[in-house]
Every structure is written in structure tokens, then in C-alpha cells.
Amino acid sequence: MAYLSKGKKIDLRNLASELRIHITSNDKIIHLHDKITKSTLFKDNEQFVKDTFNNIVDERKKLEEAEVKKVETEKKRLAEERAFELEKLRLQNQNSTAITANASPIDTNSNAV
User: What is the largest CA-CA distance in the chain?
Assistant: First the structure.
């Protein structure tokens, strides 16, 4: 039974749902724990309940890890995009500076014919 305390409340809610145990949105962790351990399925086949709970916890953790990787990948992509845009602006600035420096000065003192 100690394995039930290793998960989160959402894991207990999912387990109760899998076991078709009636729960309410107001149920606290202790109530969920009691409802699960007092269910006939738990009493008849605790190993099944334990395996189901472990699968629920593992699945949640995999989803959380996938979400973290997704966020990290997006951050990396945005950082690379910003670096690219910054380099592009630097090159444009260098190019416009070079063009201005190479342009011949306009002679404003010459007389028009």
C-alpha cells in the first residue's frame, strides 16, 4: 500500500477512474487513498492495482519529460533564430556602412552648365 503514496493526486484520481471508483472533485488525497484501498478490486487483486498505478505514474512522468524536452527544443530554436536575425542585422549594417564609405562625395561647388 505504500506505493500509493509515491504518486501525485492526479495519479490517484486516474487510478480511481481506472478502477471505476466514484470520486468527487473535492476528494483529498487521503479520501482517494481510502476509497482505493477499500474497493473490492483492491482487496481481491492488490497486485493488479499496484501494476495499474505504476503504469499510470510512469505514463505521467513520460508525458512530463516529453513536455520538458519540447519546451527546451523550442527555447533552443528561438535562441538560434534570434542569433540568426542578429547576425543578419550586423551584416546589413556592415554592408550599408561599406557602401556609404565607398560612395564618392558629391561636388556641391561645381557650376551647372
Answer: 111
The C-alpha cell at 88 is 543578419
Predicted confidence (pLDDT) per residue in 50-72, tens digit: 999 999 999 999 999 999 999 99
Q: Give the chain's count of helices (H) and strands (E).
A: 4, 0
Q: Where are the domains of the chain?
A: 9-97
- Whether the full predicted model's pTM is greater than 0.70, yes or no, is no
- Mapping DSSP onto H, E and C, the string for 77-99 reads HHHHHHHHHHHHHHHHHHHHHHH
State which H helix or E strand residue 103 sits in. Answer: none
Task: Give the residue with greater pLDDT, 10 vs 113.
Answer: 10
